[in-house]
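Deliverable D4.2, example record:
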Amino acid sequence: MMVYGIKNCSTVKKALTWFDSHKIKYEFYDLKKEALDATTLNAWFKKLPSHLTWDMLINKSGMTWRNLTDREKKLGDKKETAIQLIIEKPTVMKRPLVAIDKKVVSLGFDEATFKQLFKK
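Output generated by the structure prediction step:
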């Protein structure tokens, strides 16, 4: 299981603390230290669980989004260009994103959802 996020994000911290307290193993992918590639993003966009849509991967309420130029915000309006936006500004992605075998299973942190998805 891979958890994608940034270390100083409060939502990511909650998710990692939850995994640790439930002794669930994960690898952490720091979006500030490691770049995402178009292949990974395309695979995620194509195989999202039914309760998620591609545009949910863009965090339009976060600080990164608010600091984007109008041109950059337009990239987030279409599936094809949203991938480019996430590559250019990885912190615009909603966090944490949890993937198992390179398939997205969870986005954000909700304890009830985590209990359901990650039972031992």
